[in-house]
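Possible race condition, two jobs.
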Amino acid sequence: MGKLINIDNGGTLTDICVMDGAQVYRTKTLTTPFDLSKCFFEGLVKVSAQIYGASDVVSLLASTDHIRYSTTQGTNALVERKGPRLGLVVSGTLGAADFQSTPEYAKLFRDMVDARVALLDASVDAKDLEPRLVDAVNQLASAGANRIVVAHGGPDHLNAESTIKSILLRKFPQHLLGALPILYSHEMVRDNDDVRRAWTALFNAFLHPAMERFLYNAEHKLRANKAQNPLLIFRNDGHSGRVAKTIALRTYSSGPRGGMEGTRALAEHLGLKHLVSIDIGGTTTDIGEVRDNCVTEDVHGRVEGVEVSFPLCNMVSVGVGGSSIIRSQADAIQVGPESVGSAPGPACFGLGGTQATITDAFLLAGLLDPASYFGGELKIDSDRARKAVETHVATPLGIDTDKAVARMEAAWVEKVAEGIRAFTTVSPDTTLAAFGGAGPFVVCKVAEAVGVSKVLIPGLAAVFSAFGLGFSDISHVYETPADGDTDLESARADLMKRAERGMYAEGFALSECDLDWRVRVTGPTRDESTPDIGTLPEAGPGESVSLQLRATRAIAKPDLRGQFTGARVSPVQHGERRVATDGAMADLPLYRVEDQPAGASASGPAVLEEAFFTCRIDAGWSFEISDAGDVLLSRQ
């Protein structure tokens, strides 16, 4: 079996995890938002040097079976509202008001579309429709739209949008330079809920451009470096597929979903009933949960609170992370949602950033060691951090720097805790799983704020979402409408042909895949998927029935090991670190996670540190380390 490479691209840092049998290699690199393929390959260069003693990407790729990639770029783009200027052509029963039924929806619609909406009467004859369509597109282009979505409301939406498409292809040929990309909602998904289908198309149009440019660029570079297999994109449904077989919206929260797959595997391995995960990166905190070994999923997922036509993992992304901008606002402190990302990054990075972040605060609090931060590869500057905190927090609030740092931490913790409380309800069975580069920092305070007494920090916490991608298979769903007049045998044969072509494009024969046949019923009040038993259910008013085939090719997955036995072993201490805790500086014992024996245990206050994360163990908490390097924190 060859190597498996997993890459999780975040707003600030990009994580690389290479599995070679039982051996796991990992590293991080600063995300390069101006060209995501740059950090992608910088990560491969760094990890190849770990494996071979010198950088050798060609040898690494030649010995690799699969490369799986996930990204939070789509999530971050929506959180920060950074994307193309969309235009919307609506007709039939749809109008702009349908997208603004709540204040939250109205704000999101303004941020993405604003006033770039053209109302069209598609019921007129073709002769009159053509000039109206030309006027509508010209109107939207003049208003600044650089990508257009067409959505028709009503039971005739498929035919109406197809007519509109045929006219626009004649009047605005796609082969011309400067042609506006136009997306038709019926081509995205078959969904009789017009508003939901249109939102789905809008989100996809918003996410598509940046994803397309980067992913194809990365794939070309992989081929140039002798990659044996195509780049696989990890999707929000927990499976993977080629770039050419993946739509942009499916990548929404795909990085965090990778973390959820790892969380599910850990929950099952350790016998944990309810695991709430917080994946804290540079820009967002992604919150999810595993109950009884299952990742919770919504049949109609939500993006920024809006229901879409695809099932999505039930997660929320809160605009708070290690690089979130923290500033004074009146007499209070505001955390995020804007982030400095990796460019220019927190002020302490010395890359041009001047805004204050929690990373700057933790440096001033003594939690971070400039010599060992980021594996010692990134030298951080306390003076720059102090200046940023003084300028944006301490001076405006009329307090000294130490008090500003304490208030920044409290505000940051509360925003993370607020996200958890809004997402789920905790119980005595709840364990909090903290990962991502910023997840373990002050997780004891976060746990106290939400009433949780146990915290799990995975051994690969800093790259855990990348590691979690390794639990995915290559899988695709093929679907066709069906009703009482449908010849089921012919419909199944057609789906088999489509699946055969699709999986062949992934490099596998259909005979190598597991097949799952299902019947799906969608309508105003239900969306159900049941096994195909050879007959179709009756469709109610406004409902539609479709036949589905999921083809899945299982690929190699990591093995989990290690347990918490409760046996107390004295930990190996690496001196002390002077850290702010409970409002005062104190010299705390410092423990390096990598050097601890199985069962190592001690009580706080203390500092746990490894190459890519640091955790302050507060008073009243203790830790235990398993033989796999996982850390369990318990509140006494």
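Job #2 (started ~2 s after job #1):
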Amino acid sequence: MNNVDAPVRDARGPAGPGAPRSGDLRDLLAEGTLAVVDDGDLRTGRDRFERAFRLAESMGDEHAMAVAALGFGGLWAHEHRTVAGSALLESRIRRALESIDPRSSLALRLRIRLAGEGDYRSRDNSAVLALLEQARSRQNPMARAEALSLAHHCLVGPRQGALRRELAADLVAESFRTSRRSDLLMGLLWQTVDMFLDGDPHAERCLAELRGLLAERDHLAVGFVVSAMEVMLAVRAGRLDEAEVLAAACTERGVAAGDVNATVWHAAQLVTIRWYQGRVVELVPLLSEVVNSPTLSAVDDHAQAALAVAAATAGDRRKAASALAMLCGRDLGDLPVSSSWMVTMHGVAEAAHLLDDTATAARVYELLSPYGHLPMVGSLAIACFGSAQHALGVAALTMGDVDRAVAHLRDAVRQNLALAHWPAVRASADRLAETLERNGRQAEADAVRREFAVAAEEGPPASPEPDGSDGAGRRDGHGQVQPALLCTRLGRRWRIDFGGRRVLVEHSVGMLHLVVLIANPRQEIRAVDLVAGLTSLNGAAEHTALSGQPVLDQVATREYRDRLARLRAELDELEAAGEPERAAAARIEHDWLVGQLAGATGLGGRVRRFPEGDERSRVAVRKAIRRALDRIAEADPVIGEHLRLTVRTGVRCSYWPA
């Protein structure tokens, strides 16, 4: 990742209308930095740094070429997946290193990027860690931050949890020295990833902090990973249909960010969902394509393992055996221990079981045993297949060691309960019961089914609150707890909270209509009254039993009026001082506040009605609400889908939570 940290030298050579200009070069480097560092827009960043490198090359500006080569590497390690793309990046970095002072901070940052690229593919890690130590001794926070992030990305296998956590914590601390928001986001992201990889019960706390920062200001690349984690958590919760909707939205976000993992991660998410739906056979054609995709990481073997499982489940033993043999090669232990290794081992164990391959099962058992305490989480916490004890149990069963298989599967159920991974609880309990039944232990099998049936189907029971809810919602007429949807005004935006999710949406007329409907669930409100404003609704409260959540409560109204008074005084001072730009900015806020107060109270306390009547009001409200729903769905597909299913528009409008 790059910041433009030194001026670009003026071009030498002939000047003229067609000659390249240093100003253009500075603009390209600045735009590339802004795209990657501030916005997480990897696609735009690559484009600007590519153009900057070519322009600097034509101008003979070696320093600018070095800056562009560094920025072209991007945010993550191994963003350039194809052979040609990877070779192009490394050749540019080496060329830049030959032409700049080897003692400079820029040269160190280039060497760090080069080491990170090589170590990621080789899984050696020694080169990038050695350069990290060099960076720690330098007075250059950006070099240290980049080394910490790239080293972390090279250390996401199951063996290096403690070191990863140290690097992530150091990156968060370093972010306050670099003053780059992306460093803070990356540090928090790596901490969140580490906690999920380690099965830490507090992982979602760290994720919530990250969500909060992204709600304040988005970052496409980090937000893409967070959206992938949301898919994983929906699968753990057993909301598989919702997870599939989220996966599609996640892919769109990844494509928008220009992340090379967008389509590969979507395939991995579908594998997880279909596995727990019992529909993995449907993925044979997709996986047959993915295993040969040039965008698949050189150290990622999960798709090959999934293909072996899907083909074996479909009865195509020939394809399954071939896929498994390709994985095993000379020795299964030669597979790179990457971020997808645990998930790959899960697939190998299942495929070996389906193919009665005892030798492969024994090797999986040997390799996976040191990590039995960990969950089988793939990549940057984008997929989870539950406890590694499950794969160990399946491998032991294939080997014919029933007692050991039973012990592992019991541990798998317990660990999956701790993960709140309900599909995995059910899968491990079912496999345990089947194993006991096949060995004549029917009473034990029946006990297992009774013990875990409720937990596997319904999830953990909630402790009821005094009002009959669980603290996260209300009970409907059937006694079921429904998540509460709450809207809170924050200046020019609304915060929407729903079932542990939170999103910020800009204020709009449609959002105002939604807030009124949400505040009055299961109550029909005329579209003409929504258009007329809050005064009309308050007047109708006696007849419609409205709950009366004000759009602007008394405290907010008082604060708005106080701010208006201060703005009027400020406007007088600015105009007297002859500062038109600051006065214009203050007047914009003044006019906005006047509009908000007028919309909430009605002019002169009178009801304002849409002059054309019910039909025009119906159309206006429907369009305004639809636009608001589109913005909400873009920010959070789950909340958006909930509102699309529960908000009704027409001559009368309403919100009907399930």
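The chain has 30 helices and ten strands.
Logs attached separately.
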